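Holo prediction. Input below; ligand is adenosine-3',5'-cyclic-monophosphate.
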Amino acid sequence: MASTRTQSIEQTLTIIKPDAVAQNMIGNIIEYFEREGLSLVAAKMTHLKESDAERFYAIHKERAFFRELVEFMTSGPVLILVFQGDNAVVRVREIMGATDPAKAAPGTIRADFATSIDRNAIHGSDSLKTAKSEIEFFFTPQEIFSRTQG
Ligand code: CMP
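Structure of the complex:
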């Protein structure tokens, strides 16, 4: 029987982290999302400054791993992406796999490309509310090219 769930078209932020960029895995990673029907609507390559990474990850500032996280995220260029699609926030997180690659399901991005919980290849927004603020952190509305289809 067809599902009766109404579609919820969402946008969510992902960051291809310095380890995955250095491994030349950008195209491979985008493919994981596109083949699941998510559409890329914004993209920006940048090398985060220390102050950017500290602000972006401010929620983790009391955690023991915070300095290491900021150091890693500023160690090389990153690719910042916005994906759009039905239920995009949850689906992107499923496609990425668990934060710790040792716990990530086979076939997920982190299982395939991450080497440790610190160097875990990709970031994805953890809720719709976070997605909105993370997208606004990096993109103006004019830099987002919403799709009416796909
Ligand atoms: P990310 O999704 O970018 O959000 C915060 C990051 O902190 C996380 O991915 C991990 O790469 C990193 N991190 C390092 N240690 C931990 C930990 N013990 N728990 C959660 N995140 C951690």
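The mean pLDDT is 96. That is the main takeaway for now.
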